[in-house]
Amino acid sequence: MCSLFQAHNRLVADLETGGFEIKETQSFANEVTSAMNKLKEKDVRIILGNFNESWARRVFCEAYRYCCDFRRDCCCCFR
User: Fold this and answer.
1) For 50-71, how does the pLDDT look when each residue is reduced to its tens digit (9 = 90+)?
2) Is the pTM of this model over 0.85?
3) Which residues does 47 contact at the CB level (< 8 Å), separation at least 6?
4) Nearest Cα to 74, choosing from 53, 63, 40?
């Protein structure tokens, strides 16, 4: 688990060094709704995720609903 946190911290540092603004980072431990609401409040448009297929479905389906509800341009990237 430690290497996952290190990879996350490295990615955030690399993005900031490259001039990207990190508006918010979230963990999706138990459920998606409260974490997604925090992303909505910050008007986050790009989601980078590192989770399994089941969680990817939950997160990106919720993000898709948000984009469709508000007719926003969103880009979701995951691995």
Assistant:
1) 778 888 888 888 888 777 655 5
2) no
3) 39, 59, 60, 63, 74, 75, 76, 77, 78
4) 63
